[in-house]
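Reopening this ticket.

The earlier resolution said the output was attached, but the attachment link was broken on my side. Pasting everything inline this time so it's all in one place.
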Amino acid sequence: MALAKLANDLRLLSSGPRTGLDELSLPAVQAGSTMMPGKVNPVVPEYANQASLKIHRLDMTVVLALDAAQLQLNAMLPVVAGAFFEAQELLAGAATTLADRCIASIELIQDPPAPSAA
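Inline output:
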């Protein structure tokens, strides 16, 4: 959930410049829109968000599979292990990609200097 929160914050803070916050500039990973020249799509934070959603789904699979146990017998352990390891790989990949391909290259948008009073 922390990964999803960070990715959502990056998307919001990079929105702009006319109708968004425009606080930071994400690295351009793919071409933007033909209708909005210069637009940078937040594809890496969106990837991290999508991975987070899948991790959440896998977590729910683990919870439901463990809930299906009867006494000390749990025939669902293979799906638990599979979901756990898949979620672990997704989280590692998404966190590494977000750090390396987005966070490392973020640039803060500086406010233009205020006009001097003469």
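Reporter confirms the inline version is readable. The first helix runs from residue 2 to 13. The first strand starts at residue 24 and ends at 25.
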